[in-house]
């Protein structure tokens, strides 16, 4: 392991992954003000919504309205999740309102089947069309591979199989590959082995992004392990929202503020204003009316001034 | 950083640190059956209680009764926390029922003052007597240094100051030094710098133990960082009990089952039966009547069989 990256990129996925997984649909107005606040924390990448079928995921039926209403600084790259060509058609009606798309599939057949009712090959066939058209439209493209670190239905997912799918996505136009630890099966030793293997398989021109879930509390340890092998791009969710927590009560996505706190404390720059991010999480907590899982939003950022804002 | 340790020691501190921090005193009978269960999980070190003043910490007023009632396998080393000579006197009345003591102080003056109303020098004077007498009684001794990674009242705590206090404890008879991240201020970069410095200051004959809190979600990342620099002894608490969570709702100790899960998944042996440990946490949850913070107790251990016990 070499030197840690001096600076990393973080994509905030809460407005898509978090809002999608709330049992009660969040009001469009609340989504917009949450995204507008997130866009003023120094975050440079935000996944704002998804053009999925509104009858399947009514929580994101207002995707177009959200895209049109948000007001974010020019240096924030907005992305939308696109499941298929129909989703891309809908997204492209608002082409001037976002910069990137993310497409997704699973590295394991049974998880892909359970998630999108297709084989991996069928998914790839569709995504090639989506990626080609998105690139033609001048959009930057990320391909996200779920169950990259293990599958609840199949157990071990061979690293070479994940690499194969990643190469397919790259060849179809994806400039960034996101590796998802969908059900929190990753561990740091594995992370340190897999990313160098995937880097070798994909070459240096593709950005590798780590998307860890905190299902078993190991997300930040996996972030550290990824940093150790040169990964400098991460996805996370403010307030620890979303990430398909299974079983109920379990943790899904790692909280963005927990990632930012650890990285900044280590001297790895994120460009993100942690107190401003904690404000966004506080707003989300008020909107949702329940406590959120984020550690730093609860305990507060580390305070080295010795001001001891709380007892002990 | 070199190879990871192949095997680590874990001291379970929940029966002392966890039970002490419960607002409602736990029934002695329940404490005993929880400890008896923990002692059958493969844990080889358990801190079972503390001989603190019963009027100050009524939650542990039954220290003697617990020690006398528990039935644990011969290969489990039991320790008790001893604050001062009076506590040692009380503990020694049950000398044949335990194997180790732990003593404690803080690395920062104001935290030590707030915690035990003494200066560090006054604490050291008292602990020298305690350690000397405990060693004479054939007990193994651990000295725990709180706020080793930072102090909420003073901010940065110089590594050399922590090392000085550790040397004092070693010279007074402590065979093991526990470094406590009392309010969750440690980060992995710091952990990788501090332990080698402390190892150099203390020599190879003293066992160095890391005691991390998950206040900001970084405990397992800090465990990983400590492993990377050769630390092979940890303290944690089943069910994420205790650890003086501040503010209310914050996390204190890292959950033992989360530590065990990460280590075993990485191939670092703990000797602990994770499902049996999760049973102990389930028993604690039933006794306390509330959900506990442990991730692995909630989500279940990683299952590589592909059996998919839960959906998704």
UniProtKB/TrEMBL annotation, chains A, B:
Record flagged with keyword Metal-binding: yes
Any Pfam family matching the protein: HMGL-like
Keywords, comma-separated and alphabetical: Lyase, Metal-binding
Residue stretches making up the Pyruvate carboxyltransferase domain: 8-278
Example of a GO MF term: lyase activity
Family to which the UniProt record says this protein belongs: Belongs to the HMG-CoA lyase family.
Protein name per UniProt: Hydroxymethylglutaryl-CoA lyase
Lineage of producing organism: Bacteria, Bacillati, Actinomycetota, Thermoleophilia, Solirubrobacterales
């Amino acid at each position: 392991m070499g030197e840690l990256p001096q600076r990393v990129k973080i994509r905030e996925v809460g407005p898509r992954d978090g809002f999608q997984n709330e049992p009660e649909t969040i009001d469009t107005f609340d989504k917009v003000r949450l995204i507008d606040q997130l866009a003023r924390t120094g975050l440079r990448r935000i996944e704002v919504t998804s053009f999925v079928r509104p009858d399947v995921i009514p929580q994101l039926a207002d995707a177009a309205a959200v895209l049109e209403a948000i007001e974010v600084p020019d240096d924030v790259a907005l992305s939308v999740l696109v499941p298929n060509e129909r989703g891309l058609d809908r997204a492209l009606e608002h082409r001037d309102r976002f910069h990137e798309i993310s497409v997704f599939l699973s590295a394991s057949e049974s998880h892909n089947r359970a998630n999108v009712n297709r084989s991996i090959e069928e998914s790839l066939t569709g995504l090639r069309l989506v990626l080609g058209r998105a690139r033609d439209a001048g959009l930057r493209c990320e391909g996200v591979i779920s169950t990259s670190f293990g599958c609840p239905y199949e157990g071990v997912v061979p690293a070479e199989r994940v690499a194969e799918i990643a190469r397919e996505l790259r060849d179809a136009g994806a400039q960034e590959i996101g590796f998802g630890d969908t059900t929190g099966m990753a561990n740091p030793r594995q992370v340190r082995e897999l990313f160098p293997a995937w880097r070798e398989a994909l070459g240096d021109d593709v950005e590798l992004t780590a998307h860890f879930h905190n299902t078993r509390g190991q997300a930040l340890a996996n972030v550290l392990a990824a940093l150790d092998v040169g990964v400098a791009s991460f996805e996370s969710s403010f307030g620890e929202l979303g990430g398909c927590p299974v079983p109920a009560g379990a943790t899904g996505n790692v909280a963005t503020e927990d990632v930012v706190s650890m990285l900044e404390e280590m001297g790895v720059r994120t460009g993100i204003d942690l107190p401003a991010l904690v404000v966004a999480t506080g707003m989300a907590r008020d909107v949702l009316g329940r406590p959120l899982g984020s550690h730093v939003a609860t305990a507060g950022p580390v305070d080295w001034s010795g001001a001891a804002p709380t007892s002990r």
